[in-house]
Known about the structure:
Layout: H1 8-24, H2 29-35, H3 41-48, H4 63-79, E1 83-86, H5 108-115, E2 116-119, H6 125-136, E3 141-145, E4 150-152, E5 159-161, E6 165-169, E7 172-175, E8 185-188, H7 192-201, E9 206-212, E10 217-225, H8 227-239, H9 241-273, H10 279-291, H11 301-322, H12 326-331, H13 336-355
Parallel strand pairs: 3-9
Antiparallel strand pairs: 1-2, 3-6, 4-5, 6-7, 8-10, 9-10
Helix pairs in contact: 1-4, 7-8, 9-10, 9-11, 10-11, 11-13
Amino acid sequence: xxxxxxxxxxxxxxxxxxxxxxxxxxxxxxxxxxxxxxxxxxxxxxxxxxxxxxxxxxxxxxxxxxxxxxxxxxxxxxxxxxxxxxxxxxxxxxxxxxxxxxxxxxxxxxxxxxxxxxxxxxxxxxxxxxxxxxxxxxxxxxxxxxxxxxxxxxxxxxxxxxxxxxxxxxxxxxxxxxxxxxxxxxxxxxxxxxxxxxxxxxxxxxxxxxxxxxxxxxxxxxxxxxxxxxxxxxxxxxxxxxxxxxxxxxxxxxxxxxxxxxxxxxxxxxxxxxxxxxxxxxxxxxxxxxxxxxxxxxxxxxxxxxxxxxxxxxxxxxxxxxxxxxxxxxxxxxxxxxxxxxxxxxxxxxxxxxxxx
Length: 357
Ligand SMILES: [Zn+2]
């Protein structure tokens, strides 16, 4: 590994790019700048909604640092043999007549650079095709299910009660009637085949999201589609219900096989990091961690880093419950924080013992 690789700006760019590639399955200049903290997601959303005319002035990095980062990224993508995919940068909402501009003067070279995303070098043709489609399809129309007591349509002034739908475009919030979406029906999430088919059959559709205050994020609740589309989808789902049940069973077997492999890999990682951890316990920790999905990270440097962190956390949790009186302390009413403080040194002792060889 060359010394430049992990230090300074070069290291920062490459780590961010690897991470995005790992997590999203592709990496683009905009995703890279977001990951590096040079571009706030809120600014990108405003730009996509058409509130900001161009994105460039909202990049929070000096000219030199930005140019340096982008050229390192470009070079890295070539070195890795990543496959360029052209994306369409389209506004969200219904005014998708024009492509979004990144630069104020629509500099053709820069615009082309920002439209170029990169897929992994070993991507299969089928996945490349799906990614190309995804990066070029118009964004979904999004409708919000309200969580606050009262909201009002900014066009007609109608009151929108809690749990009802609101449409947002260019910072204006309207009721579904004003948005011409009130002829659509709500199909709640839950049946993936139903949703997919209804969307396909519906000439107009929107995704319904709702803000989850506890988790502090928007969550999908369903879709709005025409009632004919729902009827058609129902018919299609009825006609091949048996076939889909068989497919699901096959999928479950496949997943079980993959989980087994993942557990074995995790156990290996645990034994490598903690050579003196008894193998029975390593297997126990691995199956626990793999089940929770925290081991589902790939083979890149970023993926390995995630896995090592996940392993450490899993091992610590295991020690806490199996090798300290933590659970008993909690049962006798000791506060969680106090209990953790009391057992901290016991955990360190076991970790040190398991690492020593
Ligand atoms: Zn209205």
